Amino acid sequence: MSIANSSGYLDSLLQGQPRPPASPLAWFNELRAEAVDRVGVLTVPTTRDEEWRFTDISPLTKLSFQPVRTAISLQAADIERFYLEEAATRLVFVDGVYAPQLSSPAKDGGVLVTNLSAAVTAHPAAIEPHLGRHAEFRNNLFAALNTAFLHDGALIAVPRNASVAAPVHLLFIATQKEAASYPRCLLVAESGSAVTVIEDYVALQEEAYFTNAVTEIALADNARVNHVRVQRDSGQAFHIANCAVSLAHASRYHSVSVTLGARISRYDLNVLQAAEGAECAIDGLALITDRQLADSHTCIDHAKPHGVSRQLHKCIVGGAAHAVFNGKIMVRPGAQRTDSSQSSRNLLLTGRARVDTKPQLEIFADDVKCAHGATVGQLEAEEVFYLRSRGLSDATARNLLTYAFGAEVIDRIPIASLKHRLAQTVLEQTTLQR
Amino acid sequence: MMNRDSKTLLEVRGLCASVNAIEILKGFDLTVKSGEVHALMGPNGSGKSTFAKVLAGHAAYEITGGTVVFEGRNLFELAPEERARAGVFLAFQYPIEIPGVANSQFLRLTYNTVQAQRGKDELDPLEFDDFVREKMKLLEMNPDFLDRSVNEGFSGGEKKRNEILQMALLEPRLAILDETDSGLDIDALRVVANGVNQLATKDNAIVLVTHYQRLLNYIVPDFVHVMEAGRIIKTGGKELALELETRGYDWVGAEHKAAARVTA
Question: What is the domain extent for residue A10?
Fold first, then answer.
């Protein structure tokens, strides 16, 4: 794609589409205006860009997507199947628009779980220091687009030493063809607090739509956040998301990200260990088939000493699908005693399936422990034989092993009902592929 | 366990098998009847484990000659899973670890699959839990092993117990135990052997592949066979194993060669 086409596409996105209403807050409008400026300067990435080498998003630019102004009115019965029994609070967004009648925001003492556009005027002090400060948009086109269309989304603010027992469920439901949605989530965990959040993207129909999400997560000293992200979009959809996490002293962040849907998806997760003794575990599973493309780029930035990071990323690729993983581990000068390990494990189910995996270690400190490994393979013949020797058919044996490969990641989700449901999905999908 | 009503379970004649184009079994003969316990011994590389894997249907081994009849059926016409359902069981020398699959889930799936194929009732998770816990007592296994992934992080002895637990669940007609004693300390050996003995009936048969006499102190064989270069070269009773323990294998080979010269 030439730059002229690219800017034409971006112009049409920005000019030809309804823009969100102005906010009464100057800083909010300024943030959006700056993002609009950046969209004007940036171009649509192509496979000539190193960061997009394997991910050709030109099919996205050939379709026209429009933000949705008024949400389709859904009944609880339409979406109940996505509810999680453990979740006490739930925010529902339909094609990117907040649906208060389907949501149950937090009302009790201190913890805020609410939609962003309401919160931004009610609690600007909680939001202004963080919104747009963690997710870099000046050189990231899709984060800039999201910020340019910034209007609504989810706010979770957990006060000092508060521990939210029940998980918070953020449910993003796609219903319309050619809809563009720009969900924005901000999670602020004050010092010593603890919370579990599920970011869940689902579809009611098999349509082509475009989700461009940005999530920002800030952990203060000793805070603990469990972040589960499930992308089960329509197989026709485009899903591009950026998540930026900032870790203060001795805070702990654990994320499990599961990618099942979308024709083309891209997830960038950037975790910054901004103070000493921070810990993160970021795990991922992509289970794709047909002609799906799922690209996961992660970066763990060990900026300060005594940081710990653990990462397990797995891909199960069937059909003629293509999985991409780029896992960057950055250890900055002076980030001594960093302890990091990364593992990329990939299973190809067919001869046409493809995976590109790239561990990328950039280490500028000398007293560190950094382990990494990547494997790409098929099911082990010995394992299949073992199961068949116990009476299981060849197909059952292969399904069970494929399921087990994915279950290792699914098992790390700390919500029983979601874990069970996803395990079932993995089982069904692996069964379908044979 | 030998008895007059015993039936021939397994008839192996002139079996030849290769792996990676190298012939390992070179005219192997063996007859196993119900109620019998056979010990298959011999030096490393003589073909003991190959025989075990060939019977279970491992794809890496190519059958180049001979016949194997199991309860009147040509075993080579059956896929590995069909052999298992028909009643052939191999306890692996190196049981495979399957991270992500709970042992209870795996055991119930195999049990129910085989039960269904044999026209018997399947068990739901609760029923199976009671059933498998009873069987685990036989092997003095901690029920915690049900919740762990299949063989993952199990010690050598725990893996072998888990193999015999599967034998207890699947109730094979013919069980081949491939070096089930290797890696077991003396207490674990006693427990595993005791479990195997309780599973032995007049209707089934067991083939023990082993290097060591000590297993045979606990599971007393009716026949001891010595293998060399892909064939059985000597068969005796349980006392043969004791003799091998003191004298090694060389004399058996020498005796066999001398006998061959005489016949020639």
Answer: 3-275
Contacts by A122-127 with C-beta closer than 8 Å and gap 24+?
A123/A155, A123/A157, A124/A25, A126/A155, A126/A157, A126/A188, A127/A155, A127/A186
Q: Are strands B22-33 and B174-178 parallel, antiparallel or unpaired?
A: unpaired
Cβ within 8 Å, pair A388-B57: yes
CATH assignment of B8-96+173-263, among 3.90.1150.10, 3.10.20.520, 3.40.50.280, 3.40.50.300: 3.40.50.300
d(CA A191, nearest CA chain B) in Å? 35
Q: Identify all chain B residues contacting A400, using CB atoms and an 8 Å cutoff.
A: 98, 101, 106, 109
Measure B264 CA to nearest chain A CA, in Å. Answer: 42
What is the pLDDT of chain B when averaged over all its residues?
93
- Distance from C-alpha of A422 to C-alpha of A426, rounded to nearest angstrom: 6
Q: What is the ipTM of this complex?
A: 0.95
Q: Both tokens of residue A231?
A: 């992308």
Backbone torsion region of residue A316, taken as left when φ is above 0, otherwise alpha when ψ lies between -120 and 50, otherwise beta: beta
What pLDDT, on a 0 to 100 scale, did the predictor assign at position B2?
A: 54
Chain A residues whose CB is inside 8 A of the B149 CB are: 404
According to DSSP, the β-strands at A293-302 and A264-273 are parallel
pLDDT tier for residue A7 given thresholds of 50, 70 and 90: low
Choosing among A287, A343, A387, which should be mutated to test the B contact, i.e. which has the most B CBs within 10 A?
Answer: A387
Cβ-Cβ contacts under 8 Å between A and B: the total is: 76
**Minimum mean pLDDT among A4-18, A49-63, A112-126, B152-166: which range?**
A4-18
Q: Is the pTM of this model over 0.90?
A: no
Q: Is B110 on the interface with A (CB under 8 A)?
A: yes
